[in-house]
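Thread: flavin-adenine dinucleotide complex, take 2
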Amino acid sequence: MVAVVGAGFGGLGVAYKLAQAGVRVHVYEGNPRAGGLAEGVPLEGGSHLKAGTLKSAPIERFYHHLFTSDSVFIETLKELGIENRLRFFPSTNGFWHKGRMYDISRPTGLLKFSALSVKDRIRLGAFILRARSRKDWHALDKISAREWVVCHAGENVYRVVWEPLLRAKFGDKADSISAAWLWSKIRLRSSSRKGWGRERLGYVQGGFDFVVQSLIRDIERHNGRFFWGRNVTEILPLSKGLRLVTAGRRQTYDAIVLTVAPEIASRVVHGLTLPEQARLGTIRHQANICIVLTLKESISSVYWLSVADTSFPFVAVIEHTRMIPREWYGGKHIVYLSRYTDPKDRWYTATDKEILDEIPRELRRIFPRFSAHFIEHSMISRARFAQPITSVGYAEHIPPLETSIPGLYLASMAQIYPIDRGTNYALKQGYETAEKVRKYLAR
Ligand SMILES: Cc1cc2nc3c(=O)[nH]c(=O)nc-3n(C[C@H](O)[C@H](O)[C@H](O)COP(=O)(O)OP(=O)(O)OC[C@H]3O[C@@H](n4cnc5c(N)ncnc54)[C@H](O)[C@@H]3O)c2cc1C
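Output below.
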């Protein structure tokens, strides 16, 4: 019997493949609901209602979309028989710089990006093409994104385009982020674009929650069990098997897969070697605070507006219903505001009311027409472990999926690199880990 800790896409991926292979699986999730960072909740707020009773599709706490290259996710939809739910839409993108929005929906938008001189625009275009065609990232893990951009595109391009975005995502660690991470981000974004055309992004009708619920049903059909609201507090190796402890329950398993942040794993697991524990403890994450506003009116002319202004509290304003049909949400306009932060940041620790009080003033800086009366409903979510900080040399610090304790595995978001974390890669890593566990059980 195997325990999986965490019911995000990673944990569900492990449980799905193990259960299908005939292994008895128990999934422990600290939250009352599944989905982890991709959790969907009813737009109307309140506790989760059963699918079918909702007036509109559930909405993710943190904005989510898919890329055309998310092959494992797409294959999983096919296996579950729900691929007809997947839609791809042309996306529109803007870049906010010094009080002006530049439309960068098409690569040709770069030609009009007057925040840079013509020479710098050409250097930026050449740099992006160079990054897109590069195949190997290992050398880029040894230098910072800053060094890489400055070397190939110049100081101006870094200062105007990448620095504000890296700073908004990684705070004071921005200059240390590896070039490999930026390279994979550029490649990923351009993989969803055909040549000089628009980017196409995917979304599942019924939200990511529809996929989560389909995975849960499949796991349960194969005799898997879920324990909701059960925080795992301890894992101890025994002479035979591993003991898992939650409030009110102790159980022994043949193998356990943790899909939690390495920092949590280092606190929960007893018996790791000292270097291993230190390695897990050194992987740091940015937190994220995401605000979902249900509005009476649309505010943005694009789906995704990157804000290259560190005095603005959010790195992006994402008008979900500029890309996803409004009819899926009873005709409402849905806007996300996202801020990656240090967990001690004022925006992360402020109360919901304090945040909501500041939002109209902040949004008016970009959308002067915005009024507090536009807001019909709001939801604020915080995630402590939202983005691993992938500094130069990160590849060397990534823990393997197997720990030093026989039968204990760690498959977390922090082990996905240089590709930025994503539901596709959480599933992929989950499937790889399930295969390792299966082999371990059959040894
Ligand atoms: C702001 C934001 C935007 C994103 N946008 C996208 C996007 O557009 N597309 C995309 O594909 N991906 C996106 N992602 C990334 C995606 O959400 C993650 O890569 C993916 O959900 C990670 O899944 P996971 O299972 O590895 O981790 P998580 O989703 O973090 O799941 C871990 C689970 O473990 C549980 N847990 C933790 N500790 C314990 C414990 N002690 N006991 C029991 N349970 C525990 C947690 O409650 C959680 O449910 C985004 C992430 C963020 C933060």
